[in-house]
Fold:
Amino acid sequence: MNKISLQIDGKQITAEEGTTVLVAARSLGITIPTVCDHAQLAPYGACRVCTVEADANGRSNLVAACQYPVENGMVIRTKTEKLDKIRKLLLEQMLSHAPDSEPLQELARQYGADRNRFEQEASFCILCGLCVRYCAEVKQKHAISFFDRGAKREIAFLPEIAMQECWDCKECFPLCPTSALQAAYVLTESLLTPPDATVPSCGGGCSGKS
Amino acid sequence: MSRIASVTALEEFRQEILSQRDPDKPCITLCSGSACMATGSGKVAAALEREIEKQGVSSEVVSRRTGCHGFCEQGPIVVIYPQGICYLRVQPEDIAEIISETIIGKRIVERLLYVDPNNGEKATREDDIPFYKNQQRLVLGSNRKIDPRSLEDYLAVEGYQALAKVLFQMTPEQVVGEVKDAKLRGRGGAGFPSGIKWDFARNAPGEQKYVVVNCDEGDPGAYMDRSVMEGNPFAVLEGLMIGAYAIGAHEGYVYVRQEYPLAVANLTVAIKKAEEAGLLGQNILGSGFDFTVKVHRGAGAFICGEETSLLNSLEGKAGEPNARPPFPAIKGLWGKPTNINNVETWANIPMIINKGAAFFSAIGTESSKGTKIFSLVGKVNNTGLVEVPMGASMRDIIFKIGGGVPDGKKFKAVQTGGPSGGCLPEKLLDIKVDFDELSKAGAMMGSGGMIVMDEDTCLVDIARYFLAFLSDESCGKCTPCREGIRQMLKILTNMTKGLGRPGDLELLLELAETTKGSSMCALGKTAPNPVLSTLNHFREEYEAHINEKRYPSLSCKALIAFHIAPEKCKGCGACFRKCPAEAIEGGKKRIHVILQEKCTKCGGCLEACPAVFGAVSKISGVPVPDAIPEEARAI
Ligand SMILES: Cc1cc2nc3c(=O)[nH]c(=O)nc-3n(C[C@H](O)[C@H](O)[C@H](O)COP(=O)(O)O)c2cc1C
Ligand code: SF4
Ligand code: SF4
Ligand code: SF4
Ligand code: FES
Ligand code: FES
Structure:
C-alpha cells in the first residue's frame, strides 16, 4: 500500500491509500461531525454534515470527509466559517423533520442551529440510511429499503421479509438517530396482522405476539 | 449480407454501392424521425410508395426514409435531391402532386414551400431557408442523406472509413492524441475534454474495460441525442468502436432511455447489420480487434443520465449516484475502468478521424471546438434542432436561425443548459455561445437545451418550474440536494402566490450556497442555478413579487386578474364562448362582465377578444374595477 502524505487543520499526517479524510482526521484526534457515518457500514455520504474544505491539484473544493479518499499533498480544513454555515443549515433542514432527535440537537447546540428555522414537516426520518444499510450490509436481509425519490423519498419495510426477520432482530433500531424506525416498524406490524389472524388477538389491532 | 473481412473488401463494397447510385437521379427523402412520425410521416410514406407505382416512375426516382432533419415543427419534411427542394408539412394528399409536378414536370409545388413569417418570402431549396442557411450541420447533416437502417447508405457517406483508418493506420495512442488535438469536449453537459478522459481509462490498470454511450437525455424539451441516435446510429457505433480501440475495451453498452423506442429500434437494426457484415464481433475487418455492444433500456429517470447513476443502473442497481472519486475511468462498470460519453460526443469521433484534428479544431472558439447541436424551443418562430459552430452568438441563433419571437412580442430571456441551467437577459445576447462563456454568464451549455422566453414570461415562475422538476428528479439521497431544493421551491411557490416575505431572497441565497457546495452529485451542485441566474439578471422581478405583490410579466395566476373595459366591449360574445369556467356574463348587444370569483385566469377571454376591440386586459398590482351594474350593460 502506498503511503500518502497530507495536512489536516495544519497537522501533517501520512495515511494509507484508500483511507478516507474522516478516518485520517480521527487518527489525529480531530473530530468532524457526522450523522450518517457508521463504523460497520460502507461510507454513504447522505447527511453531508461532515463536509470539509479540501485543496488538491490547485483547486479548493468542498468534499464529504466520510467518503473522500486521501490524496497526496492534500490540504484539509475541517473548521471554517463557511463550513459552520453549511453544517448549521443542514442541521436545520434535518431538524424540520426530526425536531426531537437527540444527536441532531446535540450538534444543533454546537453549530447554533435553530430547529424552528424551517416549517416542521415531522416525518421523523431524515433518510440517513443507517437502518437500510445495516440491514443490507451487516444482516444481509434487505428487510427495509428506500422508496421513491426526491422530496418524496421515504423508508419502508418490505412486509414479507420484515415479518420473518425483524421481530427477533431489531438490531437496526438503536442506530436510528431519530427513532423513526420503531414507529415505522410498529405501524407495519399492525398493518400486517389481520384482525382474524390465527394468532389469538384481542381484535383491537394488537398483534397478539407481544 | 456476407462478412466484410478486410479494408479492401470494405472499399470494394463501397465502390459497388456508389456505382449503383446515380447522383443525378431524383431522390425523394422523407423525414421519419419521431416528430415527423407523430405528424403523419408514416402515411405520407405509404402514399409515396403508392404514387410512385401509380404514376409509373419507379425506375426514375429513388425514395428514402431518413432520420430527423431538425426542422421538426414544420414536419413531415420532404427533400428532393439533387436540387434539395424542400417541402414542409407534407400530407399524404400532397404526394400525387409532388410526383406529377416536381418529379415528372420539374415544377415547384409552391404551397409546400417555406414562407418566412417576417417578410412573406418563399424558399425553394433547403439551403435557402434561413433556419438551415445559417447552420453548419457537421453531425446532424448526414441524417437527411441516409436511411438509418441501411448500412449501404452509411457506407455511401464515408461510413466506417474512420474505423478502417484507426484499425490499420493508427496506434491507440495516436487515436487518443488525435482526439486530444481536436480539443473535443464532451457534449453531455460538463464539457470535459474527451481525449483526456479517454487517456484516464486507457492508462487505468486492468484488462477488462468498457465503453458506454449515454443516451439518457432527461432534459425536458431536449432531443438532440435522440435525433442523432435515431437518424445515424451507425455513426454513434463507429465512434464508440474507435474509442474502444483507443482505450483497450472490447465491450460496449448503449444506455437508451425507455421513452426512445425508435432510437432503440434503429440502433438494434444497425447493430444487427454491422454484426452480419463483420463490422462488430470478432476480428473486425481482419484487424484482430474484437468488439461487441449491447443495448440497455433505462427507466427514464433524469438522474440516470448522471454517469455514476447510469452505471449503477446498468448493473441492475438503484439508479443513484456514487461519490467520485473513484471516477468511472478507474472504477466504473462492475468495478472496471469505463469510459462514458454522450451520444453527440461519440458521433463526432468518425469525423475527427476522417477529417483530422486540425479540421475540427479550426471550427469554434479558443476553448470550445467543433459544432454543437441545440434544441431551440419556446417563444421562437422556428423551433427545432440547430447545429452551429461553437462561438455563434445567441442573437444569431435566436433571430437569424430561429426567426425571432412570434406575434411581435418582445424577447425577454433565453434559458440554456437544461433544468439546472440559467437564464440570460437581452443584454447578454451577443455572447459567444461556448462552454466557458455560458458558464461565465451564469448559464451553462448542459446538453444544449435552449428555451426562448418572451415578455409574458415570469422569471420567478420559470425558476419555480425548474426547481419543481429537480425536486421530483433528485434521487433524494443527500440532505442539501433533497432538502435544499424543497425549501427553495417552497419559497418560490409562495412568491408566485403573492405570499413572498422580506428576507426570502437572503434565505434563497443561503440555501443555494449550501446546496451547491455540499451536494454529492452534479444535480444538487447545479440545482440552484435557475434561482441564482434569474436572481442575478432579473432581481427586480423577485422584488416586485415580494414587496409590491406585483407580477411584472402579468402571468402569475394569483397576482393577476382579467377585466373587460366596458367602453371597449362590443358585446360580440367571443370571450363568452371561449370561457371554460362560465365566468363571463354576456348576452346579445350587452357589455360583457367577468365574474372574478369564478375566473380561473386561463386567459382565454384575452385571446378571444378581437384585437381591434382590445376590450380584455390583464391587470396586476392594482384593484380590479367594480363590474358595471346590470342596467348599464345594454349597448
Ligand atoms: C443530473 C445529471 C443528468 C445528466 N444527464 C445526462 C444525459 O442525459 N446525457 C448525457 O450524455 N450526460 C448527462 N449527464 C452528464 C454525465 O454525467 C456525463 O458527464 C456525460 O455523459 C459524459 O459524457 P461527455 O464527456 O461526452 O459529455 C448528466 C449529469 C447529471 C449530473
Ligand atoms: S430489525 Fe429488521 S430491518 Fe432492522 S436490521 Fe434487523 S432484519 Fe433488518
Ligand atoms: S429510520 Fe432512522 S435510521 Fe432509518 S433512514 Fe430514517 S433516520 Fe435513518
Ligand atoms: S380568464 Fe379564462 S376563466 Fe377568466 S373570464 Fe377569461 S376565459 Fe373565463
Ligand atoms: S457523515 Fe459524511 S455525509 Fe453523513
Ligand atoms: S423528426 Fe422530422 S425534422 Fe425532426
User: Anything to note?
Assistant: The interface with chain A takes residues 301, 303, 318, 323, 325-326, 470-480, 482-487, 489-490, 510-511, 513-514, 517-520 of chain B (CB under 8 Å). The longest strand of chain B covers residues 371-378. The mean pLDDT of chain B is 94. Residues 479-496 of chain B form the longest helix (18 residues).
